[in-house]
Structures are given as C-alpha cells and as structure tokens.
Amino acid sequence: MTFRYTFGGDEFIFVEISEEMSLEAFFKGASVTRELKDCKVPGITEICPANASYQVRYNPDLIAPNAVVQVLKELEDSISEASLKIETRVIEVPVFYNDPWTHETLMRFRERHQDPTSTDLEYAARINGKSDVADFIAAHSDSPWFVSMVGFVAGLPFMFQMVERHRQLEVPKYLSPRTDTPKLTVGHGGCFTAIYSVRGAGGYQMFGLTPAPIFDPSQRLDYLKDFMVFFRPGDIVKFKPIDREAYDRAVSEVEDGSFSLRIRPATFVLEDFLRDPDGYNRSLVEDFYAN
Q1: CA 142 to chain centre
Q2: Overall pTM > 0.85
Q3: How far is CA 208 from CA 1, 73, 186, in A?
Q4: What count of Cα atoms within 13 Å lies in the side-chain half-sphere of residue 122?
C-alpha cells in the first residue's frame, strides 16, 4: 500500500492511501491522522480523514509544504499493522425498511433508474443474487457497518460493510440524480450505505428510513448534546429492522425529546477482524447486547 502525496494550492496536502476502499486503507489513514493530531505540529490547522485518503491544511507562513510532507511520511513509516486499532462506539440504528415515504419518492423518479419496472430494494436484491427483498434486508442489517467518513452534507455518514469483499452488497447509483430524497433515508451507492441527514437531491438507492436524527443544530436529544453532528469516523453501526408501529413510536419520542439510541463503547482491532470476520462480528454484537 503506497501513499501518494499531492499539493492543493499553497495550503493543502491530499494523501491518497489506496485507489479502492478497504478497512486496511481506512485504518492506515485514521492512524496517521490520529497521530498527527496528537503531535500538534505548529502550522497545521485542519486534518480531514476520508474513506481511503485524508487531507491536511497548513499555514505556509508557519511551516513549509515539504516539511509537512516529511512529517506525514515519518508518521506513515511509524504505523505498524499491529497498531491498527481504535477505541470506538457500537451504535444500534433502527430502520423502517421498505417504508411508504421513500417508496413514494422512488416511484416519482423511475425514469432515472436502471430498472424502471422494479423498486430500489427489488433491484438491489436481484443484482446481489438475493432471493427476495426480505433476504436482501437481512443481508443489509445482519452484519455491522463501519463509518469511514462523514461529510458531503452536514452529518452524512458513509458506511462500509464489515464482511469479506466478495460478500459486500454493491448497488450502482441512479443513472441521474433525483431532485428529492426524504430526510433520514438509508441509501446505498457502490459499496457504501449512507444516511441522508437532511432532505435534498441524491442518487443513492433508497432502502428505508430511520427515525433517529443524526444532525441537529438545536441539539435537543441526549446523544446530540456534545455536538450537532452525531456520527464520527470509526463508529460501528448495527442496523435494526423495525415495523411501522415502532417507527411511529420512535418519531413521537423524537418530537417530545425522549428518544435515544443504544450506544456502547468498544475496541476494534483490525488484525483480529481480518483473521475471522464473522466470528469477530458475532463477538462484537454479542458484547453489545450483553451490556
């Protein structure tokens, strides 16, 4: 895995770790950016990790660009495979799959879809070799997802499925973007699942809705008290399918301020996960529900 350094103007350095997304690439970037933050290098003003890359902003009056690159290369060389672990959170996110609101929206935009004769879930199930929509929903919700970056719009998490590469769900984006996507839609494009933090345009396939706000400047709910953006890179998400009754109940709790999410601390060790992904995921989920 070779890091590639590119200058952006006179204030930015973009570092590409890999041309394809993988947990190994994410962890290497996360490890470097975490160490860089701890080093508190004078002149470095912003650090932004992403899926398989990261970007650093610096003040050229305080530190030369080549000096920044040298710091980053030294940190890269200091990262060992055994050190690729993080202290993180496991979060249960309820999802009303196949809900009426995303269904109504996707039906309005069928002419922009690869298969206008089916729904997004039906199309996703078929191209992933699943027997039906229920089988696809089970595949989407059974395994955990790793938040690899947050952005594009405020608070939107990109999540990477924690299974072997050949088992990852993959669905292309719409042929052309929609002009409307309901707030808190759980969507999927390529290998990434995302949650639309606000209503707006979008091109990801729409699978359902979560009642859980993930971006709120008013910070009304307990899990948003620390920051208006909930998700952080490194979070581990376990989707929980719910029905209409549970969804409506959760929406009422959001409205009266009593809604909360199940969140537990966890240590994620990449080496252990890669050795036995299914066993590691089982242990992770079992520990989560045991606490």
Answers
A1: 16
A2: yes
A3: 36, 42, 5
A4: 11
